[in-house]
């Protein structure tokens, strides 16, 4: 329970004898009877005096999140909270059991009590408290409530489309009581896991009950357990749920227990009775203030909770465990580890001129509507990656491994001739082991095992494309950016060892299988650090030609065939101080930056011909048609028409990273974290460097913007932070968020040293781990 609650915020209770499946079905059929009553009758039972609420009687569910609306309709039953009197309850007997309203719900209440009490004891034991701690305030007339909920279906296609983007079944909130038992007839319920940002779907389980923590347990444990934020989406389909809030008796004092108070962790909540806690929370709600006020969240916590990227704990394979790279994820090694599934639609926030550049917006086409899921394991030799991808219509036209790219390929926009797997729907992996923005590996695979790997010396676009200590002395690049376009032409000068000639073909390193037209599964094992001898021609020569960091004016020389593990980049393609060995998880390296993506394209994209590509305006038109069609079908389109691109792209990318300015994969600064662990179920720990990483990335963006803006720097950088915080300089379309930056600056000391004008000089951009120069000048804030 503890592991489930701290990692996921919920767990499922199964084998609950007192609430068997047939019984649950009875509850649903009685709920249906109640909800099917004529409006007139429901109006008679409406709140405040009755037990019914819903928009059909003009008593909407309270807005848990200020400003939101909810479509849920509820029959509520509580022995203490709203004792029903007179005739304000429905006089309906259950057609299966013959019981009336009170009789039926009392029976359900008693049965739920059995599970509830067991859990109260369980919670106490889990927290090393005397088993009776919670259960003793539960017996008798507690403040618990049963809710039989109905979420009406969408009546029209327009309504269905609208529901994809707007409003809720029930808006985000935490429950006020100790813990909640939930059962749902259909999907729609979602949770935020502790510290998480992505809403995760609660699977529908016929015989099991979801258990989540509420405010009261959070208060008792002084915040050690956190109430689980949850919400219900406004689904197209009709949905019923059976909810039971488990609470204490009204007079019970809810206060942090001494076991959870220490000098370093003083009591964070004032004592309050159960009754008072309910009253205050409800009053707040009635005033439209929203209940989901996270009292505990300090500004820095809020900042971290909102912007921290996805993170996955990669567990080492246990002794004797093996993974067969065959595209079937049947091994224990896979089933025993969780999925990484909080993906964001990178294209999304660019719609409508960034008006909705929020994570919620970026998530509207991920999650249950379009799941992308990844799992990872590691051992001394390999990083294992498994993924399940969905696409509307999976496309795979390319079927070769692409290395040693003929130089000419890069000059072309010809899609099908270029044979790049990423013109198909593909899975993409980006790993920056040195966590520096430089020399990161990219790997791509389509559903026909066509693959592509390359090592990028700089981010291909945007952020970090100026290396620390090395200045990019190009011209201004037509205002497009600084050295903004990297070195893809180098692809092939280095590839992963698994693609070395001597190891081919098919050495069980990758396998992609598609089992339906909509889903494909893949498995990859990446060598981490190759130890093969030089005779085998895969150990990388130490004297390979130096590659200039600035590729804007100097064209890079291909190195010839070089192959290696993720850490075997040639010495010339590493930061000077980075030692490959030290970055190996087996040698104690705990974090790497990484992101994974499911990249989807319009179905015709990979079939474009050379002739087509001579007419970007036609491609653009087709893409616009695609977007229009989607908008009619779904109310919005996930495809991005990137008008800035010479050949317009028509793609969608769900990626496991934070949002960045370019909404593109090539921004290591927004990559998520891989956390390597050797013990099973190790806790996920946030990386302490993240805040400075986040802040410096934003400052960098702001500096570039400042420099290029005629009304601001007009060719010069600034060491004045106030100038960088100007919203015209630090704006969302440029991955800069002035509010977040301002908040971060309250917690991190920053000095900016500027050499002066841009030409030949640089603004230095570094994170602590890779800072290579001394800072001088600038104001220390
Ligand atoms: O319907 C559901 O699954 C959730 C309902 C809920 O969160 C509530 O009533 O507090
Ligand atoms: Fe709830």
Which key terms come to mind for this protein?
alpha+beta; binds fe (ii) ion; binds 2-oxoglutaric acid; seven-stranded antiparallel β-sheet; globular; 14-stranded mixed β-sheet; 18 helices; 21% helix; 781 residues
Task: Please give a quick description of this structure.
With 781 residues, this protein is α+β, with helices and mostly antiparallel strands. The protein contains 18 helices and 29 strands. Bound molecules: 2-oxoglutaric acid (AKG) and fe (ii) ion.
Q: What sort of overall outline do the alpha carbons produce when their principal axes are compared?
A: globular
Number of H/I helices? 18
Give helix % range: 10-25%
Strand content: 15-25%
Pfam families: 2OG-FeII_Oxy (PF03171)
Domain Fe2OG dioxygenase: 133-252
Protein name: Fe2OG dioxygenase domain-containing protein
How do the strands and helices of this protein lay out in sequence?
Layout: H1 2-7, E1 10-13, H2 21-35, H3 39-44, E2 52-53, E3 73-77, H4 101-126, H5 132-135, E4 145-151, H6 157-165, E5 168-173, E6 179-184, E7 189-192, E8 199-201, E9 209-213, H7 215-220, E10 230-233, E11 239-246, E12 253-254, E13 272-273, H8 274-286, H9 299-307, E14 311-316, H10 332-335, E15 344-345, H11 359-362, E16 373-378, E17 382-390, E18 401-402, H12 407-411, H13 415-418, E19 426-432, E20 440-446, E21 451-456, E22 495-496, E23 510-514, E24 519-527, E25 563-564, E26 591-601, H14 610-613, H15 616-634, E27 640-641, E28 650-655, E29 672-677, H16 690-708, H17 721-724, H18 738-745
Parallel strand pairs: 14-16, 14-29, 18-21, 22-25
Antiparallel strand pairs: 1-9, 2-3, 3-4, 4-11, 5-10, 6-9, 6-11, 7-8, 7-10, 12-13, 15-28, 16-17, 17-24, 19-20, 19-26, 20-21, 23-24, 26-28, 26-29, 27-28
The structure holds 2-oxoglutaric acid and fe (ii) ion.
Fe (ii) ion is lined by residues 173, 175, 230.
